Amino acid sequence: METFTKTLCGLEVRVGLFGKQDAKRTVLFFNGIGARLEAAQAFSDHLPECRLVTFDVPGVGESPAPKMPYRPALLSKMAADLLDDLEIKTVDVFGVSWGGAMAQQFVKDHQERCETMTLAATSAGMIMVPGHPGALMKMVTPKRYFDPNYMLEVAPKIYGGSIGENIEQLEKFAELVMGGSTRGYLYQMLAGYGWTSWLWLPQIKVPTLILMGKDDKIVPATNGRILKSRLPNSRLEFLDCGHMFMLTKPEETTQLMRDFYAEH
User: Fold this and answer.
1) DSSP label at residue 242
2) Using CA atoms, how far apart are residues 10 and 78, in angstroms rounded to an integer?
3) Is 112 helix (H, G, I), strand (E, B) or coil?
4) Which residue of 5, 36, 133, 212 is surrounded by the most CB atoms within 10 Å?
5) What Rg, from alpha-carbon coordinates, does the chain have?
């Protein structure tokens, strides 16, 4: 892993590069809400043939919170500028949960730079089937990102699946999302407010792999069917887990991605 600080669109962000520079493929990774770039390490370890590029969005991890809220289009522009600086022409785009919206926005804005898109545990934004009310209420507050004990208590109820069965795994996840700022979390929430990809998804011709957890309490699996119905060149796969299948089933998740990459 290599990390450094870079100014993109006038904002200072922390950038992370994982894997070998001469890897066969480069993956542009958009993280879930509140998660620091170190969370990408697990994916990189299971995708040794890929180089992974990511960054802490403003207000998360070691990227300072901006003075004003931002929209997904800004993060799309920041990602494109970063790829230009790194002299990377094309990428496989990968977005998880909140980052799935950012991935869709990037592909819309820069479709010519995208070999494939993988969307994990995400939706078309405001046009979606909402999650369990209890899980959504706990997501309104960023408390779980600042209180490790609270995270350990509520994570199984929020994310579903087997996330609560392995305490060491859960503690590792809590470590990966600690930090950032309350303002940064609020701005992430506001970035998705009112945003939807519903109208323009049919314009995206990039081959797309959609991964959904069967027991996802935040983004019900049926949202994957909605995405597939709107994306003309897509495949939908379900995993027997909740929202955090990328953490609880990394081998199965990355094998699906690896097979998909081999086809494209």
Assistant:
1) -
2) 9
3) helix
4) 212
5) 17
Residue 251 in 3-state DSSP? helix
Q: Closest by alpha carbon to 176, among 122, 247, 116?
A: 247
Residue 171 has pLDDT above 80, yes or no: no
Containing H/E element for 25? strand 25-30
Contact, 94 vs 103, CB < 8 A?
yes
**Helix/strand/coil for 217:** coil
How far is 149 from 174, CA to CA, in rounded Å? Answer: 9
The residues assigned a catalytic role are: 97
pLDDT interval class at 203 (50, 70, 90): very high
CATH code of the domain containing 162: 3.40.50.1820
Query: What global pTM score does this model have?
Result: 0.93
Q: How many domains does the chain fold into?
A: 1
12: three-class secondary structure by DSSP: strand
In the three-class reduction of DSSP (H, G, I as helix; E, B as strand; rest coil), residue 206 is classed as: coil
Q: How many residues in total does the chain contain? A: 264
